[in-house]
Amino acid sequence: MLGIFQKAFAHPPEELHSPVSSQKAKLPQEALLDFLSSHPPESTLSLNFADSAVLAYSRPSPPNPLQKLLFVGYEDVYCLFKGSLNNLCPLIRQYGLSPKSTNEAMLVVEAYRTLRDRGPYPSDQVMKDLDGSFAFIMYDSTTATLFTAMSSDGAVKLYWGLAADGSAIISDEIEFAKRVCGKSFGPFPNGCMFHSEGGLMSYEHPMYKMRAMPRVDSEGAMCGAYFKVDVYTRINSMPRVGSSSNWTEWDSRS
Prior knowledge:
The protein is of the alpha+beta class and about 250 residues long.
């Protein structure tokens, strides 16, 4: 799966940029053509959102039942989801959705819309409610907003980097990320989520900031970055009260 998001909308971390110029990154359109040409055309689909974003995926053959690849679009929110949720049925009941028409991707879209329309709610708690192995890329075309996340177990891999013009590129294919981002790419951190307005955060450890660490490739060159929780730097946030099962309870005191 692939997401390409224009720099002005996505605000990708600057630490992903590598000063090493031995391998040039591609422009977004070149990256999309690379993805499309490396997969069978009959199983590949891409959606363009003017000049702001691109989503694309290719159905695996044969399908992997443990790492399903799903794509949904609902009320201008689009989601690519890879993996599975162990607690899908309880979450469907929690959100009051139809069990016949709701898969993991649709559930994530509904959770996002709840946060967007009824916030401020603790998004880290909502992400913690997702029990399983997964990674997803979501784009809200009404607000030109990117939201992506990966489970804490790391069973489903996700990589992100920068195109030649600084656009954010996110994919589950490491060799593709290397080809189109050059040295300016790195692994997406486990148990973390990225929102184009709020940046990168760990939903497992929401009280701590994320720290960028230089990444060294197999040739010993400094390139891109990987991110980890900075256990020495806490962030100020509104304390949450109530049980974890009722994430709508929120204490607004500073």
